[in-house]
Specification:
alpha/beta; RibDG_C; Dihydrofolate Reductase, subunit A
Length: 178
Amino acid sequence: MKKIILYIAASLDQRIAEPDGGLEWLTGFPNSEKTDYGYKELLASIDTVIMGGRTYREILNMDVIWPYSEQIAYVISHHKWEAKENMHFITENIIETISELRNQEGKDIWLVGGGELTSALLTAKLIDEIQICYFPIILGKGIPLFPSNHIESTWKYIGSTAYNSGVLKVDYIINKTC
């Protein structure tokens, strides 16, 4: 069975995006050492990405080459989009479909974002690992990392990495003994 891994950047006040979904706080963060914060290691461990519709739109608005061409992408959305190679859109039976993906053979699944999808998958107990890269920024407002409406869960700390930029990456796995 595949693991679903939430790998995500967050501000110190637990925001993953600006109120409009923008990521300028993240893309504009100084990174003179070109640190990838574990991104390449994560990409090597997955063959599938899952993201919400807002996250998908933000990536399209970044005016970059699609970053997940080596993976199969699933976008959870209320809207039908034009299908592309290695890309699927899930508009109904979201939890069931993701659960089926998780039960397939292959590498793990990266839950790219956003907050509502994260909350739904936490409630369905489908997230196995969380990797949060905390950036030394306080946004004050924006989209929360963990919106309400998910159930309580207990996580086991498995490690952390502090970077010269001030970013702290913290890794957890679900504590299945609780």
